[in-house]
């Protein structure tokens, strides 16, 4: 059974407050009453709106002094109550006040206390119909998709109606929605990935063409909207990139709809990767990096700092480094003895001797989170990207590094295949220049061979788009990204990421020496 709609009552007159409680209860809703006087009443209203995830508030205009013609304290807390929808209920004011309540302050409606209760009920139902999937009779299938939203984003059960209501807000005229989830559970069996921070669906409203919808935590969608406006909208050529058409919010959730002009049949990159020929994969990533995002790389510039550590921290925040410092290195089922990456990186980025300082460093607008679930491939093999939460200025090699890191770290995890994974690590750390790998036909594992072929193309594209052939800053970025990943995954994926990080540390320390070291056993 779905939860009752919660109506916040903010009224300083006790008799009218009790009347509103009785009316709201009789109409089948759950009243939540703000208490106190003056500022205490205003503060309690804001607190209870958030605590109870109230969907609508009935707010008196004069909450401090009924006899003060200048008191519009009720109007002034409307924004603080958002995303709770506000109906101003007042015995004072005229049409001008009503218009001000709605236009300037953001109220949904204005009802006079002298009007019949039926008027308030009608206005209340009109407002509820805007956001309530149940009230509007919106049919969403399959219902399991809504459970996926609440489970993934950890929405409390008592407020679980938000999963359906966010779709009601995004599709205000729809009668039925058909959802198909993209990414994560639907995307691939290609290894272990971090816990998702969002859920992405292909949504068909009634009989219209499908659009993509991203559901995430409210503050994440706000960042998504802002970064899209700042870095993406009208800044890329052609039409092979998504357009955010609508954004809306509830207490715990936000949602954004994307239109994909000219694209259809979308699947996440890793589902596509599993079955596509290497020639198709190479076409797809070349189309993305050269044609879609290439113009942004062309505008690269020299940053104020040449510290790669500081530049990556600007994109990710420093929390990942604090988390990695808390790790202890595990033992590995092989005979090599690489350094502990936790101790190593503390010395590597010492402020007095920051070895991540790199000559020729460039920054450009990057996607910032380019893993395989944020790339969607259409039936024409073109790559479309979503998720702009970390989009902005970053190290120019970052997007290439992140996609490579995702490829490597998604391999199936088990102790049995650690020797094969070790062989992969040694191969990707060998070259000092960003050029193609040789000897791939001698790779004993077909899956590893395919990954190496893809990485080979990625690095050639990085060389071309960033106008650099030096692999050292690339491998430093790969180290940072691998350690970042180690902070958000569990064993055995975490252990494997730390193993790759260890080998990267050793490679950077022995840059001009033969690789791999003679005493390292690469295969059983």
Residue share in helix: 40-55%
Category from helices, strands and their pairing = alpha/beta
Q: What percent of residues are in strands? A: 15-25%
| Broad shape | elongated
The number of helical runs is 21
* Uncertain ranges: 185-191
Biggest pleated sheet: 6 strands, mixed
Tell me the span between the first and last alpha carbons. Answer: 57 Å
Q: Which assembly state applies to the chains in this document?
A: single chain
Give the neighbour order of strands across the main sheet.
6-7-8-9-11-10
Mean pLDDT reading: 89
Number of strands: 18
Radius of gyration: 28 Å
The number of domains: 3
How is this structure best described in words?
The protein has helices spanning 14-26, 39-51, 73-76, 78-81, 95-103, 117-131, 133-136, 143-152, 162-170, 218-232, 269-275, 278-292, 294-298, 308-316, 319-324, 341-348, 398-409, 418-428, 446-466, 471-486, 493-509, and strands spanning 6-10, 30-33, 56-59, 85-90, 109-112, 139-141, 176-182, 198-205, 211-217, 243-249, 253-259, 267-268, 349-350, 353-354, 363-366, 375-377, 383-385, 392-395. By secondary structure, the chain is α/β, with parallel strands linked by helices. The chain has three domains: 6-130, Response regulator (Rossmann fold); 135-259, Phosphorylase Kinase, domain 1 (2-Layer Sandwich), CATH 3.30.200.20; 303-367 and 393-509, no CATH class. The strands form five sheets. A six-stranded mixed beta sheet has the order 6-7-8-9-11-10, with helices on both faces. Helix 5 (95-103) links the parallel strand 4 (85-90) and strand 5 (109-112). The radius of gyration is 28 Å and the shape is elongated. It starts with 5 loop residues before the first strand and ends in a 15-residue tail after the last helix.
